[in-house]
Amino acid sequence: MTRFAISAAYMAVLYAFIFLPVAVLVLFSFQDGRFPIPPFQGFTLKWHLEVLSDEELMVALRNSLLVAFGSSALALALGFLAARGLATSELPLARTIRAALTAPLSVSYLVIGLGLLASLNLAGVGLSLWTVAIGHVVINAPLCFAICTAAIGPAQQQAERAARDLGAGEWAVMRFVTAPMIMPALVAAFLLSVTFSWDEFIIAFLLSRFDVTLPVEIWSLLRSGLNPKTNAVGSLVFLISALAFLAFELSARRR
Amino acid sequence: MSLRIEDRERRRAWALLAPAVLWTAVFFLLPFAIMAAMSLWQKTDDGIERTWSLVNYMTLFGNPTYIEALFNSLEITLIVTLLSILLAYPLAWIIAEEVPERYRRLALVLAVVPFWTSYIVRSYAWSLVLAKQGVLNTALEGIGLPTLDISNSRAAIVLGFTHFFTMLLTLTIYASLTQLPPNLRRAAADLGAGPWATFRHVILPLTAPGIAVGAFLSFALCIGDYVTPQILGGGNDLALPQLIMLQLGRRADLPMVAALSIVLMAVVTLAYLVVARFMKVAR
């Protein structure tokens, strides 16, 4: 009984710690006053409406979604093809290739962003949403590759071989055999990439200039100090990420 | 005949691999090589001079500001990693061992929900909590305790980081706890080990890989983060990424930025080498 009480108390304290900032963020986004700090002066939707009618924030939101879905689609394509390439035949350099493809996972986003910035600078390429998307493919393709590799097993390979024996071309094998068989993994990889890109700040900050993504826009909002409007946009971002995560959970559960 | 089929399979495998390999080479390996080269060049008044020397590294290691930033980063990162392990292990344990199986998944998902707040927003939210008249101090005053003035300080940075990495480590430690074979514990008990001895000699070594993976991830993500120290630290003693961004923003000194990035990567690699031997289960 005492042991149960201690466990329950510990859990309660840690959950409180984990949820405290989110709770404060969301609660004070409804603050009817100028500062998002106690006392809570009453409930208003003013700040949320202000966010929704803020042109710059909405453009940044659209940019973020564009970059997130575009870069994730490309990252998934690269990762899926590479995973199949390494699974179908025994290549001499397989280990080296696998290490090179997953290497970006172990390097700080800051360093990846700076490396790309230095290179683009040297090559004389201007910064835009395209360069941000390139950076996001660099960080998400290894993730998609790893998830797809884990999902492709002997069962898939046998089915692929059978399809080929029956005369299916390479494209048909991929389209009608492999992809449907590992669909849950593909969905999971895509959604995970979308949430990572959606939330990513430092690469987007370093590699964008005039068109920016939402985290970069929020960053410039932070300079105005504590403000219920920042709470409102933060709550909105949290809501969208949480929905994506929920979709990911559900797709993982069906597996 | 069989050779020809194998050849064809190989050619197909290369075709499938080509896009990803090319992408990685052009946008990851090449930039890294360029950065390494650039760290050996120098910034001059009218651009970058491409003469090879170690002058950036010499400036870096000879300048107390840089050394201090490096040590600030190391100190914060080590404290955060250790604190997060200490907080996360019991939580992972309780979820894996004491929460009824029906609610386990829910308990785990709940423990990582704030993971999905944007990480800029998360740091901002902590600055709200810790503000002079923020929620924390209002609560402390309410119960008659002295208030804490830790906004814009190293304590705030550590708290913000620890919050995030406690969630991360709960996941990795939970994963390794659920892979423990249950009969090992029974065997230890049958052989006369008490709960503490069982934990110390059976469970802890078997969950060491989970701790090691999580600890390395925390270390790498923490030491490379610019946002949390920038928002919560109030610009007092700078962390390494803040210094890098300063060099970039104020001085546009790309060669020095490159040298600092290489140092940052070297530190992470070193940490990996230290931790790597714990990542596999000791037998």
Give your account of this protein's structure.
The complex is a heterodimer of chains A (255) and B (283). Chain A is 77% helix and 0% strand. By secondary structure, chain A is mainly alpha-helical. Chain A has one domain: MetI-like fold (Orthogonal Bundle), CATH 1.10.3720. Chain B has a single domain (65-276), classed as MetI-like fold (Orthogonal Bundle), CATH 1.10.3720.10. Chain B has helices at residues 2-38, 55-62, 64-97, 101-112, 119-130, 135-142, 154-178, 182-190, 195-223, 227-232, 240-251, 254-276, and strands spanning 42-44, 47-49. In chain B, a hairpin with a 2-residue loop joins strand 1 and strand 2 (47-49). The radius of gyration of chain B is 24 Å and the shape is globular. The chains are: A mainly alpha (255), B mainly alpha (283). The interface between A and B is large, with 77 and 76 residues.
Number of helices of chain B: 12
For CATH, the homologous superfamily of chain A is named as MetI-like
Strand content of chain B: under 5%
Could you tell me the CATH topology label of chain B.
MetI-like fold
Number of helices of chain A: 12
N→C terminal distance of chain B: 46 Å
Tags for this model:
heterodimer, A: 255 residues, mainly alpha, MetI-like fold, 12 helices, 0% strand, B: 283 residues, two-stranded antiparallel ribbon
Task: Write a brief caption for the model.
In chain A, helix 9 (183-199) packs antiparallel against helix 12 (228-253). Chain A contains twelve helices and no strands.
Topology:
The complex is a heterodimer of chains A (255) and B (283).
Chain A: H1 2-27, H2 46-52, H3 55-88, H4 94-102, H5 109-123, H6 129-151, H7 154-165, H8 170-181, H9 183-199, H10 202-207, H11 214-222, H12 228-253
Helix pairs in contact in A: 2-12, 3-6, 3-9, 3-11, 6-9, 7-8, 9-12
Chain B: H1 2-38, E1 42-44, E2 47-49, H2 55-62, H3 64-97, H4 101-112, H5 119-130, H6 135-142, H7 154-178, H8 182-190, H9 195-223, H10 227-232, H11 240-251, H12 254-276
Antiparallel strand pairs in B: 1-2
